[in-house]
Amino acid sequence: MNGRNADAGTMDPMARGTGGLSRRAFFIGAGASLGALSLAGCMGGMSLTEARKVYGPVADPKFNIPAVNLDKLNPKYYRRTVDYPSKEAVGTIIIDPKNYYVYRIEGNNKATRYGANVGRDGFRWDGNVYVGRKGEWATWTPPKEMIARQPEAAKYAKGMPGGLDNPLGARTLYLYQDGVYTLYTIYATSHPDSIGKGVTSGCTGLLTQDMIDLYDKTAVGTKVIMLPS
User: Fold this and answer.
1) How many domains is the chain partitioned into structurally?
2) What stretch of H or E contains 11?
3) Which CDD domains does the record associate with it (predicted)?
4) 201 and 178 Cβ atoms separated by less than 8 Å
5) Which domain holds residue 16?
6) pLDDT, tens only, 150-193
7) Tell me, what CATH number does 65's domain have?
8) Within 13 Å of residue 198, how many CA atoms lie on the same side as its CB?
9) What's the predicted TM-score (pTM) here?
10) Is 67 helix (H, G, I), strand (E, B) or coil?
């Protein structure tokens, strides 16, 4: 893996309001499965009506996930199935940071494509990793490097419980290399205006509804390829 920053997998928090740390600030500050609603077979993309269904509210067992504000999402980042010739195994995840897409290989030269946010300049990386573990409404713990940069994160040094305001969101795929956690994740974001932008410190974000779709299809051990940017 070719990384540009040893702390690239961390998210930069920023205080807002009365001094609390907002979910949006963690990722942007510095710089129920959808099964039947999945449009994986819709080669022409989805209409706004369809998008409102796919990106509508989700009654998750732990927290009710709100609908995506589609006014803040470029339609080119709607989930869809695309032509994508590849020799990689079905299920392989390919991140294209240059074009802000994540692909899941489906076989027969097809892939499910999701819009994504990626690392901002100076925090991008490339190489092969794999999903070492998965988490639903995971606890987020800022690394010591982040706390050194932004002391306001210190109050979460022992972990921030999962929830709608947690930076990792509803679902998280933790990326490993050679048995070691890289500090990078693929995570769920509730901020559609972050999709199509470089805003994180090396992690990759999908809209929550897309992340649930990818998470449910992804097993521990799945290969993940980060393309050069």
Assistant:
1) 1
2) none
3) YkuD_like
4) no
5) 2-226
6) 898 899 999 998 999 888 999 999 999 999 999 999 999 999 99
7) 2.40.440.10
8) 15
9) 0.81
10) coil
